């Protein structure tokens, strides 16, 4: 039983000025990285909240990086596909750099060693494929690519193919990695939207909208006048983060692995902390 955590929401006297359109409730979820154990309860809480939003437009946006690093990439995509096929909620799945590399490996086995350096080995294992031990063994990597192609269902293939690069709702621009300062949001390159880091994080210039992103793990939600970062490093920290947007309100919900199991944490989005910027 999740409980009516949302009913205990506090009002914020200094809330953000950005907003989503009237009659719209948006939930957005940060980098999952194979943590099906954290995604299930988080998604249950989100759907329970949507159930209390009768008559509203219900939008659920995932910021990418569903696969790699954590143990259950395949299970995560299974769950997201069932969610998309179930109806009732407008689901939008964005393309992260890890999905981009996974899709590329299906066509080009040569990128396998680099992909596996950043978590692809765990994704392969979730599909029943063992990554080669020898980085230079081209035949073994070609065989692994063929095995992944054989293991990948048509539904998973369509999921990877149809991932979007960005979406805007109201005053928010949702994207995996961020955006290049000085470039209009509707002219951002696909590469930047999946991969940008320092050029985005360290530049104080604002955009036409608040940029909501993942990609760069941090100890907590990153919130300031120009961006909202939701990657809390779930694969390593055991904390998966989502944010609810309604009118000009923002509220966070996190699932966290603790000594007693998975717990739900609720908080308001109000502070920014230093990001960890080394992960790829």
Provide the fold topology.
Elements: E1 24-29, H1 36-51, E2 57-62, H2 73-86, E3 90-93, H3 97-107, H4 112-117, H5 120-126, H6 138-151, H7 154-161, E4 166-169, E5 172-175, H8 190-195, H9 198-201, E6 210-213, E7 222-223, E8 227-229, H10 234-237, E9 239-246, E10 249-258, E11 261-268
Parallel strand pairs: 1-2, 2-3, 5-6, 6-8
Antiparallel strand pairs: 1-9, 4-5, 7-8, 9-10, 10-11
* Tally of separate helices: 10
- The overall pLDDT, averaged over residues, is 91
Largest sheet: 6 strands, mixed
Secondary-structure element pattern, one letter each: EHEHEHHHHHEEHHEEEHEEE
**Rg, Cα atoms, Å:** 19 Å
Helix content: 25-40%
**Strands side by side in the biggest sheet:** 3-2-1-9-10-11
The CATH homologous superfamily of the domain at 18-100 and 164-268 is named Metallo-dependent phosphatases
Indicate the overall shape: globular
The CATH architecture of the domain at 18-100 and 164-268 can be named as 4-Layer Sandwich
Strand content: 15-25%
Based on secondary structure, the structural category is: alpha/beta
CATH fold type of the domain at 18-100 and 164-268: Purple Acid Phosphatase, chain A, domain 2
Stretches where pLDDT falls below 50 for ≥5 residues? 1-15, 271-280
Oligomer: single chain
N/C terminus separation: 36 Å
**Which CATH top level class of the domain at 18-100 and 164-268 fits?**
Alpha Beta
Count of β-strands: 11
Brief overview:
The protein is of the alpha/beta class and 280 residues long.
Describe this structure in words.
This protein is α/β, with parallel strands linked by helices and 280 residues long. 32% of the residues lie in helices and 21% in strands. The protein has a domain at 18-100 and 164-268: Purple Acid Phosphatase, chain A, domain 2 (4-Layer Sandwich), CATH 3.60.21. The chain has helices at 36-51, 73-86, 97-107, 112-117, 120-126, 138-151, 154-161, 190-195, 198-201, 234-237; strands at 24-29, 57-62, 90-93, 166-169, 172-175, 210-213, 222-223, 227-229, 239-246, 249-258, 261-268. A hairpin with a 2-residue loop joins strand 4 (166-169) and strand 5. The longest helix is centred in the first third of the chain and has 16 residues, at 36-51. The model is unreliable at 1-15 and 271-280 (pLDDT under 50).
């Amino acid at each position: 039983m999740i409980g009516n955590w949302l009913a205990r929401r506090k009002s914020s006297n200094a809330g953000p000025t950005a907003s989503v359109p009237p009659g719209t409730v948006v939930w957005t979820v940060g980098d999952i990285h194979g943590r099906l154990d954290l995604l299930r309860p988080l998604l249950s809480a989100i759907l329970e909240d949507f159930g209390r939003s009768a008559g509203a437009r219900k939008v659920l946006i995932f910021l990418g990086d569903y696969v790699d690093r954590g143990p259950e990439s395949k299970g995560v995509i299974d769950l997201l596909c069932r969610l998309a096929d179930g109806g009732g909620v407008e689901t939008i799945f964005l393309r992260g750099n890890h999905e981009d590399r996974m899709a590329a490996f299906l066509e080009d086995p040569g990128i396998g060693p680099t992909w596996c350096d950043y978590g692809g080995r765990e994704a392969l294992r979730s599909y029943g494929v063992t990554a080669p031990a020898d980085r230079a063994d081209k035949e073994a990597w070609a065989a692994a690519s063929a095995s992944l192609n054989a293991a990948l269902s048509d539904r998973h293939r369509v999921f990877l193919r149809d991932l979007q690069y960005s979406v805007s709702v109201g005053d928010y621009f949702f994207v995996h990695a961020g955006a290049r300062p000085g470039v209009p949001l509707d002219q951002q390159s696909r590469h930047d939207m999946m991969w940008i880091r320092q050029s985005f994080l360290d530049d104080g210039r604002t955009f036409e909208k608040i940029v909501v992103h993942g990609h760069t793990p941090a100890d907590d939600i990153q919130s300031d006048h120009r961006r909202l970062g939701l990657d809390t490093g779930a694969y390593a920290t055991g904390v998966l983060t989502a944010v609810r947007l309604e009118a000009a309100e923002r509220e966070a919900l996190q699932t966290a692995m603790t000594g007693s199991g998975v717990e739900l944490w609720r908080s308001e989005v109000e502070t920014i902390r230093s990001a960890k910027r080394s992960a790829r």
